[in-house]
Amino acid sequence: MLLKNNISADYIKKLNVEQRRVLCSQIRHLLVKTVTNTGGHLASNLGTVELIVAMHSVFTTPKDKFVFDVGHQAYTHKIITGRAKKLNTLRSENGLSGFPKNEESEHDSFIGGHSSISISAALGIAKAMQLDNDDHSVVAVIGDGALTGGEAYEGLNNAGKTDCNLVVILNENEMSISKNTGALALYLAQMKSTQKYYKTKNSVKNILESTPIIGKTLGSAARNTKRMLKFALYQSNLFENLGFKYLGPIDGHNLEELTEALSVAKMMKRPCLVHVYTKKGKGYAPAEENSGEYHGLSPQNALVTNCETFTDHFGKELCNIARDDDRICAVTAAMKYGTGLQYFYKEFPERFTDVGIAEEHAVTYCAGLAAGGKLPVFAVYSSFLQRSYDQLIHDCSIEKKHIVLAVDRAGFVGEDGETHHGMFDVPMLSSIPGAVIYSPSDNKELSFCLNKALYEENGIAVLRYPRGSSLYDSEANEYYSYRHISGGNKKVIFTYGRITANAVRLSDKADILQAVRIYPIDDKIIDILLNYDEVFFFEEASVSGSISEKICSLLMQRGHRGNVKITAVKGFIPHNTVQNQLKIAKLDYESMKEIIGE
Known about the structure:
The chain is α/β, with parallel strands linked by helices.
């Protein structure tokens, strides 16, 4: 058994190629056994086993730095850097994070929860090392799906101008969370056929080196015609045009080829791009056949309900409305299944657009659709929408364009942790002039809010809802901006969204004021709250810039002299179950009960 609990990169360097192949097989077995139990990202990790083993065979962390783009593919890296025995704690309370985390290990140089950031971060690290006269390497690993994000090109463009010791590994697996789309996917697919160029180049080089007297002269002439040969074979190489030395394509499951290519890249001491191609789910038939389904798995002990999720209900309701309105268009940023838009895609493919991992473009694209008389709906995770703040202000708010944002994963998301929680959409969106925000507590309210957002708003209309299913049935049979449950108490709880379910259980101890349209704040809400001696705010969003803070300011302006207490999310809460994260933030039923007192 080559795989040990205390496995290290030093140990791997002592193994021969055949032993490393066996080790890769054992790592795959451990990944399947563990992740199918703990939950996590399986297919992407199975696809990068050989790549990461080869990286650790050539480079030495933490002196050399690895930056993983969307670090959920770095489980093998965790195994190799002394964390194999803790892998069964993956994504659990006080256990290993599902992403690289510097506070977890010195071998993790940068967190990578979001896409398209690795080249920029790696370049910054490489420049800092260069300024310190440190000639170790920095390696960025980025997938072809992540290359649809604009920041990746900004990083490439700037890195190619430098002489930093930077290696970019482009891992082409033809798969982001949804299948890659656009011209880039086609470009990379075409480049696979250019291996004949490298075979031709090596054959010519070998012949010239064996030719006496004139060999060197002819070699120089051959180098001068290299660009013409490349153009003849594949027109151009984007990466070399940007200043990188290009190596590849390489079989990402061939340890010998990988090790050789990475060794050459290490020797170059300049920006170099190694293009590898891998298969998601490699070595585990179910994941190979359906890498999308095995992209992310839930823990075996995850709470399962028969209730329809907010995501699925949104997707189906949008289809119901779109059947009678051909102006409605749906947009996703490589998250068709994650946002429930697979139903819309199947029924209305001509009105569906997957822009790839390009949230900024998605927002401005929606503004363009609106300018053309359409009703665009951009379904996006809350944490990913953060990238689009400028576009929302400049291209939608100032332009007075009507777009609908279906903001999924609002609030806590569970095991993915800090990088994926949706805590900042409320402060961010409520700061944009003209934006209207709805936060339904269950699917019935969601249906009413979606119709309001589409047909009764003029600017940016936001519908935010959490991951998973609602916690109760509001029994709503019509739209309401707010709901006031009054029992004559002197205390009142103000809240919204899914945690309304926890609040209504306390209606015998305090009156309940639930907002559904949470912004702009309804004047009637202020009128109601002014009548209470004690106001308790509970909000599943960042406390800074929260709706609660805004209401407190309005209450003060209106002369309220009662006691107020805000309970909302402060800072970053790590990976855990959603139930535990709500408890940590004191937004669960027991914590609410304790806070309001008797």
